[in-house]
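Hi everyone, sorry if this is the wrong subforum. Our group has a chain we'd like a structural model of before ordering constructs, and none of us has done structure prediction before. Sequence below.
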Amino acid sequence: MAVRHRLIKASPAAVWDVLADGSRYADWVVGTASSYPKRGRWPQEEAAIGYEIRLGPFRVGNETIVRRCREGSVLELEAQAGFLGTARIAIELREWGRYTLVIVDEHPLQGAGGTLHNAGFEVLIQLRHRAMLARLAAACEDAERGEGAAPRTPGRPGADHA
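Answer:
Right subforum, don't worry. Here is the predicted structure as tokens:
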């Protein structure tokens, strides 16, 4: 299991505000170019957002579903990854003084990803989490200082993160 943590210099409320805004998913999830609502009200259980990954001229769309939500502290997601199957991504927020300790735990859940999972794959997930948590920290710390960027939308300059 790939577990990683980061101290984000923002309040738990500021971090939760970013996580709870489905339109900001592409701001912090590595490889995601855009996100949009699919069903339900994010981040309520069973709500889903669609997202797009761009690799050069190729575009792949998938979705992420909320499987568990404890407002302000826990968000558990099931991300679909096409032929690789799905992954469980659990994000926990802990108050740490005036800041927030964010703990991310991700592992393959269904499909080929679970079969192919090995130590090398685990290293790649750790690298992805390092980048993802850095992006989440930047988004939260900017928002806390009042410097937050408007949510990214498809077609806007700078919306590409792939």
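For your construct planning: The longest helix spans residues 119-144. Residues 150-162 have pLDDT under 50 and may be disordered.
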